[in-house]
Every structure is written in C-alpha cells, then in structure tokens.
C-alpha cells in the first residue's frame, strides 16, 4: 500500500513539475546579450524543413525552438563558444550557448513566418531566485555567477514569456517565472 502512495507521489511530482518549479524559482534579468544572426547552413536547412511545412504560430515556434535546441546540444560545464553558428557543429554548450541558439532560431523562424513585427526573442543574463532569495550569492564558483535565459516579447501586449532552454533540455519545463 505504501508503495502505491510513493508511486502516486512521484507521478504527481512529475506531472506538476513545471507548476512546482515556477512556484519555488523565479528569474530576474540582469543584462541583455546581443542576438546573433544564424548563418550556419545546416541549422538553417533544419529550421526551413520545419518552418516550411506549416504555418507556425508563436506557440509552435517556441515548441520548435525547444526541439531544435535540445536535440542539437548537450550541456557542458566546459568553456565553449556561445556563438550558435559554432556550437551547432560541436554539439556542446553551456547555458549561454543554449540561450544564444534558442534565441537565434526563434528570431529566424519569426522572420521566415513574417511574424518578426509582432514578436521578438531576446537573450538575457539573469539571476535565479529560490523563494525570493538569490541563489547566486551562495555559489562561489564563477561558472554559477549568473544564468542565461530567453524572453519572448509580444509587441502588441508587451507581455514577456520567460524560457530557460537548458532547463527545458534537462526537465522539460517550458516556461519560468520572472521577478
């Protein structure tokens, strides 16, 4: 009987992981990073094969960015390039590279679908807060001094959707909260 409760608890935690994560963690933008235009022909061909098959909405573009980024990269703590045109060939990236590729793919897809006048993907450096406490103050390793995320700005409503591409790759959590 106890085993069933544990299995049920694990199932519920898995099903509601995004809600639980967003209730405990939030992100605060510290500074922005420049968006990098895609020039790598392999990435562009991969995007075009997805983008040209159907008319994409913003939600579909976000889903495709998640797929392309998580399928193309694996996380590393090593110092690597953050240029999406380079990392796509090396297949390894840290949070900077994940966010750079995600942002570049998103903006490319918006332009292809002629939606770039409505939305924009932006690359930011952020701090992560756990229960409103900045966790970076407790981490001494320079690698953890900040974290990179992407926001999707809707020009008409000024609403921003916050996305952590490296978190999505590990957990499947699609959006995060901001402070």
What is this entry, summarized?
With about 180 residues, the protein is α+β, with helices and mostly antiparallel strands. The chain has a single domain (about 1-170), classed as C8orf32 fold (Roll).
What does the model show?
The chain is α+β, with helices and mostly antiparallel strands. It has one domain (2-171): C8orf32 fold (Roll), CATH 3.10.620. Helices cover 45% and strands 22% of the residues. It has seven helices and seven strands, in the order ααβααβαβαββββα. The chain has helices at residues 2-15, 17-24, 41-51, 58-72, 84-90, 95-112, 165-171; strands at 25-33, 74-75, 92-93, 119-130, 133-134, 147-154, 160-163. Strands 1, 4, 5, 6 and 7 form a five-stranded antiparallel beta sheet that branches. The radius of gyration is 17 Å and the shape is globular. It starts with a helix and ends in an 8-residue tail after the last helix. The model has no long low-confidence stretch (mean pLDDT 91).
Strand-residue proportion: 15-25%
Give the low-confidence spans: none
Q: Do you know the CATH topology?
A: C8orf32 fold
Q: What is the helix/strand order?
A: HHEHHEHEHEEEEH
Provide the number of structural domains.
1
What does the main sheet amount to?
5 strands, antiparallel
Structural class assignment: alpha+beta
The number of distinct helices, counting runs of at least 4 residues, comes to 7
Broad shape: globular
At the first level of CATH, the class is Alpha Beta
Mean pLDDT: 91
Instruction: Tell me what the CATH architecture is.
Output: Roll
What is the radius of gyration computed over CA atoms, rounded to a whole number of angstroms?
A: 17 Å
Amino-to-carboxy terminus distance:
42 Å
* Secondary structure: number of strands: 7
Keywords: Membrane, Transmembrane, Transmembrane helix
Transmembrane segments: 6-25
Protein name: Transglutaminase-like domain-containing protein
Organism: Tenacibaculum jejuense
């Amino acid at each position: 009987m106890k085993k069933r409760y544990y299995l049920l608890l694990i199932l519920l935690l898995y099903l509601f992981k995004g809600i639980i994560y967003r209730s405990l963690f939030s992100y605060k933008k510290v500074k922005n990073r420049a968006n990098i235009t895609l020039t790598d022909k392999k990435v562009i061909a991969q995007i075009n094969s997805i983008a040209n098959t159907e008319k994409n909405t913003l939600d579909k573009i976000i889903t495709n960015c998640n797929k392309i980024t998580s399928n193309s990269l694996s996380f590393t703590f090593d110092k690597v390039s953050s240029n999406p045109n380079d990392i796509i060939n090396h297949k390894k990236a840290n949070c900077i590279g994940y966010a750079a590729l995600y942002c570049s793919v998103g903006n490319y897809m918006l332009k292809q679908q002629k939606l770039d006048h409505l939305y924009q993907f932006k690359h930011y450096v952020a701090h992560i807060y756990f229960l409103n406490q900045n966790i970076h103050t407790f981490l001494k390793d320079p690698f953890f001094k900040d974290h990179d995320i992407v926001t999707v700005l809707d020009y008409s409503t000024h609403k921003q959707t916050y996305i952590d591409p490296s978190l999505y790759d590990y957990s499947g959590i699609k959006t995060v909260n901001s402070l």
